[in-house]
Design goal:
single chain; 344 residues; alpha/beta; Rossmann fold; 2 domains; 6-stranded parallel β-sheet; 6-stranded mixed β-sheet; disordered N terminus
Length: 344
């Protein structure tokens, strides 16, 4: 867990202690809890939240987000409804309108549609007194406008994470200027595309020839649908030396992609985003060399917690960078049990 997240969790702990100890203590009498203090497990009971995990149930990335939200709901007693979106920005905006119509206390969204598409809907929800917060992909305009109302962000800083992965992959792979790199990402998505842009900028700065492919809707929803796309790219450019997948479920499917393209472990240096059970297996088998881990369990947990803190105690929105550590063959065994348990 990143130092920044540990710091935020420490703040929560200290805040709870202050709330439960605001009366002076005597030598013989325990202090009374402050009114409304979080002194029991169901301190957020009765608060209705609609939560967007992102993709599909069981998906390598989004299931971990969901598990974090489940734990937060258990810890706080919040009443949480989960809405799956197949990673489809258009579906997310439609589902947001439907969720707002039910008048929940709060909605935790994935920010993939971007500010332009989302902000009018968020304005309407905020006007009804609905707390909105975002995860995974930042909505900077909405966040700046409604931070005092509890609009926060839990996730990686996308451009920085993308650039860091691209830079690290170049350094570790040993590729040189003029070599070909295949980048499979989401440049076309406002906001979310910043991570792909970060990768692309890092590769181009290193002098690589970047072969870019936008992730289509079918592959975005089901990674295995991308097999013919991947093999087609390698048929045209068989001398690709580096592959970076900007999508957790695609990263977890890299072994399938490479095998379909007739490659063996280590033939191509592969890097990508987000840990999953399949990514662990691919690293251990030599198919995947580098993964950047944004600790998505925390995105789910803090998405729910933010709304509870705002609803019950009027906390403003928190900016939480859930981290961007690297996983490879040297540390993957230490993470394997947690990843397979869908916590990391």
């Amino acid at each position: 867990m990143s130092k920044k997240v540990l710091g935020v969790m420490s703040i929560f702990f200290v805040a709870a202690m202050v709330l439960t100890a605001c009366a002076p203590a005597s030598a013989t009498t325990a202090p009374a809890a402050a009114p409304g203090a979080a002194t029991k497990a169901d301190w957020c009971s009765g608060v209705k939240i609609v939560f967007f995990p992102g993709g599909t149930p069981g998906g390598g990335f989004e299931q971990v987000v969901y598990n974090g939200a489940l734990q937060a709901a258990k810890d706080t007693g919040a009443n949480v409804q989960y809405v799956w979106s197949d990673w489809d920005p258009a579906k997310m905006t439609t589902q947001f309108q439907q969720a707002a119509a039910t008048k929940p206390d709060g909605i935790a969204v994935m920010g993939h549609p971007g500010d332009t598409a989302f902000d009018p809907l968020i304005d309407a929800a905020e006007a009804q007194g609905i707390i909105v917060t975002s995860m995974n992909t930042q909505l900077p305009t909405a966040q700046a406008k409604y931070a005092a109302n509890g609009f926060g962000y839990a996730g990686a800083v996308l451009y920085q994470a993308g650039y860091a992965l691209g830079q690290e992959a170049v350094k570790r792979s040993g590729v040189k200027a003029g070599d070909k790199a295949f980048l499979w990402g989401l440049l076309a998505q406002a906001g979310r595309g910043e991570r792909t842009k970060g990768v692309k900028d890092a590769l181009e700065k290193a002098g690589l020839t970047v072969i870019y492919q936008e992730i289509d809707d079918a592959t975005n929803a089901n990674a295995s649908a991308g097999v013919p796309i991947f093999t087609g790219v390698f048929s045209k450019d068989p001398d690709i030396k580096l592959v970076i997948t900007d999508h957790g479920n695609l990263t977890g499917t890299i072994q399938t992609f490479l095998q379909a393209a007739g490659k063996k472990p280590g033939d191509v240096y592969a890097a990508g985003f987000d840990m999953s059970g399949n990514a662990i297996t691919a690293i251990q088998g030599g198919w995947l060399q580098l993964v950047i881990d944004q600790q998505q369990y925390l995105q789910g947990y803090f998405g729910v917690l933010q709304i509870c803190l705002t609803k019950q105690y009027h906390f403003a929105g928190l900016q939480i960078d859930t981290g961007a550590g690297f996983a490879d063959k040297n540390n993957v065994d230490a993470l394997a049990a947690l990843v397979k348990g869908q916590v990391r």
